[in-house]
Design a protein that fits this description.
With 286 residues, the protein is α/β, with parallel strands linked by helices. It contains 13 helices and nine strands. The chain has one domain: Alpha-Beta Barrel (TIM Barrel). 49% of the residues lie in helices and 12% in strands. The strands form two sheets. Strands 2, 3, 4, 7, 8 and 9 form a six-stranded parallel β-sheet that branches. Strands 1-6-5 form a three-stranded parallel β-sheet. The structure holds zinc ion. The site of zinc ion has 5 residues, from strand 2.
């Protein structure tokens, strides 16, 4: 559909030129995001922009909820969670990468309209920039979890650095809402067994998901809706985003929420927060 405007500078420029251009155009969204993030010299934002490529790699490998994760859930029973036991009709909507002034308020307003409570995984560096949004998440009755300080891939970091990521984010969240969250979601869902050992010993529950909306790929509301409703099961934990990298478009997510909630209710599911789904406290040592 873009062939005409981009590829008609003379036949001699030839198919190769066009092919290269179209290839580049296909890769451009990710590249453009990465470039902007770097220009802005914000390590956190730049880290985010890597999400698309990491996620794509993951999707072709063991994600989501692949054998490795299931095995880890068995080994770390109650400390590494992908879903609740299947005997409930409850499910949990979870929103990562908050707070983000572009999307978090829209998601909050939609959840309020639909009268449901969800769980938000907060990035510490973003909480420091927009504390009022974190307070609003809490005030509106949602649960809060820790999503690291600036969104690195834990599996590429030594344990000390991972501890620092979790503790710095925890301090930022505590400074805003007054408590340390028990729930931790590692960026990209990546975490190693030794990091899990530490998390378990220190009172955290690491929560990934069994339903991936893939909304970070900037999908339409209909695609996000289909990705969720075709895989949801009793006890499911559903991954969505209410924040993103520079230029990332999450309006599909915002528009999909009412449709997802209505579908869930009409199929006998009850959307609740993660602490309610899992029967655990929201606060560490709580
Ligand atoms: Zn994230």
């Amino acid at each position: 559909m873009m062939k005409r405007p981009f590829c008609h500078w003379g036949r001699r420029v030839a198919a190769w030129g066009c092919a290269f251009f179209l290839l580049f155009a296909a890769a451009a969204p990710g590249l453009a995001l990465a470039e902007k993030g770097t220009e802005a010299s914000e390590a956190a934002e730049a880290a985010w922009t890597a999400q698309a490529s990491l996620g794509a790699k993951a999707a072709g490998g063991k994600r989501p909820g692949g054998a490795d994760w299931s095995e880890m859930q068995r080994r770390y029973r109650g400390a590494f969670v992908l879903s609740a036991p299947r005997r409930t009709r409850k499910v949990a909507l979870t929103f990562d990468d908050v707070p983000d002034p572009r999307y978090t308020p829209l998601v909050l307003a939609t959840l309020k309209r639909e009268k449901i409570h969800a769980t938000f995984f907060v990035v510490g560096s973003r909480a420091l920039k927009h504390p009022e949004l974190v307070k609003r998440i809490q005030k509106e009755g949602h649960a809060i979890g820790n999503h690291s300080f600036n969104h690195p891939d834990f599996s590429k970091l030594p344990l000390d650095e991972v501890k620092r990521q979790i503790e710095r984010s925890e301090a930022a969240i505590k400074g805003t809402v007054g408590f340390a969250p028990r729930l931790v979601r590692p960026p990209y869902g990546e975490i190693t067994p030794s990091q899990l050992d530490w998390a378990r010993a220190n009172g955290y529950t690491v929560v990934n998901w069994d339903v991936d909306s893939s909304d970070w790929r900037q999908l339409s509301a209909q695609r996000v809706f289909m990705n969720v409703t075709r895989s949801v099961r009793p006890g499911s934990i559903i991954l969505l985003h209410a924040g993103g990298g520079t230029g990332q478009n999450l309006f599909g997510t915002v528009d999909a929420i009412p449709k997802i909630v209505r579908w869930l209710r009409s199929h006998g599911y009850e959307p609740v927060t993660l602490p309610e789904l899992l029967g655990i406290p929201e606060q560490k040592n709580g």
